[in-house]
């Protein structure tokens, strides 16, 4: 009953049917979503009484100052491990990055003997806790072109704890 030719025809029919469905889905997607529709301004807008008043700007989470006020230097010490791959805590001992002893409140690019990237120097003047928070969140977004390859610390609580730890080192 079944010979090799019949089995080949059945498999070919299944593959052909699958191909038709895939091409049909691709064509439908192109027609409905990619055909240039919806890329222009709406022709007529119906005014609604109070329509703009109901929209309030999205509120951001608590401010960094609140997290920093409750930050734990002891918790920040355990977060230091990620930084220790490139930075040192001893005054004057630079690693791949500059030493971080006394970094909170220190002028940017003030460590002697370390070659800073120009983009970092142009961003700010002093490493305040707020500026360190923004930098640690996304170093490349804060100072595009910086040589620092760290991807950033996502949790604001972790950043606050780490900054509190760094601030506690130099009394």
Summarize the structure.
With 171 residues, the chain is an all-alpha fold.
Give an overview in words.
Pfam families: Cytochrom_C. One of its GO terms (molecular function) is electron transfer activity. This is Cytochrome c family protein. Keywords: Electron transport, Heme, Iron, Metal-binding, Transport. With about 170 residues, the chain is mainly alpha-helical. The chain is built from 7 helices and no strands. Helix 3 (about 75-85) crosses helix 7 and helix 5 crosses helix 7. The model has no long low-confidence stretch (mean pLDDT about 85). The protein has a domain at about 65-170: Cytochrome c-like domain (Cytochrome Bc1 Complex, Chain D, domain 2).
Descriptors for this entry?
46% helix, Cytochrome Bc1 Complex, Chain D, domain 2, elongated, 171 residues, 0% strand, heme, 7 helices, iron, Cyt_c_1A/1B, metal-binding, mainly alpha
């Amino acid at each position: 009953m079944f010979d090799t030719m019949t089995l080949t025809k059945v498999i070919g029919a299944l593959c052909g049917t699958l191909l038709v469905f895939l091409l049909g889905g691709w064509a439908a997607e192109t027609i409905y979503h990619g055909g240039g529709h919806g890329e222009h301004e709406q022709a007529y807008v119906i005014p609604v009484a109070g329509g703009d008043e109901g929209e309030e700007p999205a509120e951001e989470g608590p401010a960094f100052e609140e997290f920093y006020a409750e930050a734990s230097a002891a918790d920040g010490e355990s977060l230091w491990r990620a930084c220790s791959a490139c930075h040192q805590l001893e005054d004057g001992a630079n690693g791949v990055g500059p030493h971080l002893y006394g970094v909170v409140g220190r002028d940017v690019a003030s460590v002697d003997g370390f070659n800073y990237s120009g983009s970092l120097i142009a961003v700010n003047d002093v490493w305040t806790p707020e500026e360190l928070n923004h930098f640690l969140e996304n170093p490349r977004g804060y100072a595009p072109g910086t040589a620092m390859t760290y991807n950033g610390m996502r949790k604001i609580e972790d950043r606050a704890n780490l900054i509190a730890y760094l601030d506690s080192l130099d009394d």
